[in-house]
Amino acid sequence: MTTPPTKPDGLTPEQLSTFNRDGYLVIPDALPAATVQGLLAETRALLAGLDLSSHPLTRFSTGDGGGDGDGDGRDHVGDAYFLGSGDKVRFFLEEDAFADGALVRPKEQAVNKIGHCLHELSEPFRRLLDSPEPNSSSSNTTAPTPTPASIARSLAFADPRVLQSMVICKPAGTGGAVPPHQDSCFLYTSPPSAVGFWYALEDAARENGCLWFLPGSHRRTAVERRLVRRVAGVADEEAGGTVMVGNEGAGFPRGEGYGVGGEGEEEEEGEYVPAEVKAGTLVLIHGNLLHKSEKNLGRKGRIIYTFHIIEAEGTVYDERNWLQPPAGGFTRLYK
User: Fold this and answer.
1) Taking a C-beta distance cutoff of 8 angstroms, is the pair 254, 191 a contact?
2) Element (H, E) at 225
3) What is the rounded CA–CA span in Å between residue 93 and residue 248?
4) Global pTM?
5) How many CA atoms lie within 13 A of 94 on its CB side?
6) What would be an example GO MF term here (predicted)?
7) Worst-scoring range by mean pLDDT, 117-131, 149-163, 185-199?
8) Where would I find the H helices in 80-212?
9) Which of 53, 85, 86, 328 has the largest CB neighbor count within 10 A?
């Protein structure tokens, strides 16, 4: 559901109500055109600097576990290059860019995503967490762009921490489908607290793999499975891979209205709806919400930037999670 742009001080009551009801919120014109172009330029510069001759050719796959509570996650990526990416900027390749084990696409059409610490190590992406800029694309040109911090305050975060920032490229012809999943399966806190900030840097439509959501599923679908390291706490060079396991902790965030319909309600009970958006749009995604995207069958790529926040106050971030905090901890959103 599309709503008007946010006010500078965060979400409006209508926007907050929509997010709480549906589990996602589409905010058009959240980034000015100049910022979008700057982030695209940074993305292209990162791709241009990629040297595949020394790259381990790690492919990104959500696997058959997918975060939807089914499958065993055997195909999830889990090598040392992936597990050691929490405080680095690394490149992960599309499965369809390979044939008979060999890379058959140029790097600009082969990269699935660039992550996972762009919010700290790339100046253009880091600036998104700082002060807002005038939004020339909005109907109110004097209104500043809403900051992630102001939105987090609207969502009642006491101490939000930023983690898992990445550019997802979804190139034409090779951008693979992502099965239904919940982000809290991959970034688990007890109780669950993850929220995704998903910025479109290019238009996203059905033909090039826009997001699809199951509205309201965050209220009735518990986090039942999690992606974890096979061996918690091992050094990255000793990485033993990742696996989907049953979640023994809380399945829902704190608050009223969760668990409606019973935990474990099947995702098929409902209809996914597409979120076709223009460049500059921000989509907020609740960590328990089931969402997916289809393969890019169009002629244009679909580059987006996304990061997640979790609540650090009153939650536990498990040492088994695939993504572990750097030495200084995850980035504080409130300065």
Assistant:
1) yes
2) strand 225-229
3) 32
4) 0.88
5) 26
6) dioxygenase activity
7) 117-131
8) 80-83, 107-110, 118-121, 123-126, 148-154
9) 85
8 A C-beta contact, residue 42 and residue 125 = yes
Q: What is the pLDDT of residue 239?
A: 55
Tokens 């039942």, located at residue = 224
Tens digits of residue pLDDT in 149-162: 999 999 999 999 99
**Whether the Cβ atoms of residue 308 and residue 196 lie closer than 8 Å to each other:** yes
Neighbours of 19 (CB within 10 A): 25
Whether pLDDT at 18 is above 50: yes
Query: Which DSSP state fits 84?
Result: T
Rounded CA Rg of the chain: 19
- Span 275-333, pLDDT tens digits: 999 999 999 999 999 999 999 999 999 999 999 999 999 999 998 999 999 989 999 99
Q: Within 10 Å of residue 123's Cβ, how many Cβ atoms? A: 10
| Cα dist from 226 to 136, 318, 325, whole Å | 41, 11, 17
Q: Considering only CA atoms, which of 155, 159, 173, 267 is closest in space to residue 221? A: 267
